[in-house]
User: Fold this.
Amino acid sequence: MLVNSIYEMKNYPVVLLNTVLSPLSFLLLIYFVSGGRLIGDAIEGGFIMSMFNSGMSLQGDLAHLKNDFKLQDMVVSSPTSPAAYVTGMALAEIVYSVPALAVLTVLAAVYIHPGTIQTLELLGVFFLMFLTSIAIGYTLSTFSSDIVQSFAFSRLISTLFSTLPPVYYPITLIPLPYRYVAYLSPTTYAAEISQHLLSPESLSFLPLSTLEVALAWGVLLATTAFLALIAVKKARWREV
Assistant:
């Protein structure tokens, strides 16, 4: 955390701009286009995007340390476990996102006013998104042989999962023939749960039945568990 985030943030404050501007730029776009009606969706979408992108950033950093500094080789030969190494790196990525998350938290307190139960459920959704992206990022980093390749995959996956799906706006705005494609992304289910947790009086509220909410939670949990299993079984922690 110190080496991979805090020292870098301290010495090069410009690196914070990307983590802050990425979610907030989409938030402002949705706010102006909708005339402020979808501000709740946009704020929750900013959280989902920040958490997912934080996990995907893990891919580039791990690949850089593995290929350019051979750090993973040293960790493999030490008593440090893969879980401890990845956990430390993942926490470093969260530190990077703290400025954006702090701004989004203030906006949520002003515009959404979530209660205690709502807050806990939202935190659960965002945490699952983070775990999902960590599993993807870690697995891909162990197969990557070049930092440029890693960044390309990271940006591609982040776009496919956090920009194209209906994260910043309700899925009901997508015409039905194309709506089913959005359900291929786990972030769609995260957004649906988050939007359903908004106040029913809010224009951003997404009405869902108990079965639909349970299904969304089930898909999120199953996706996270499946990707975590792939990370454990298929990631190349030790070179053969």
The chain has ten helices and no strands.
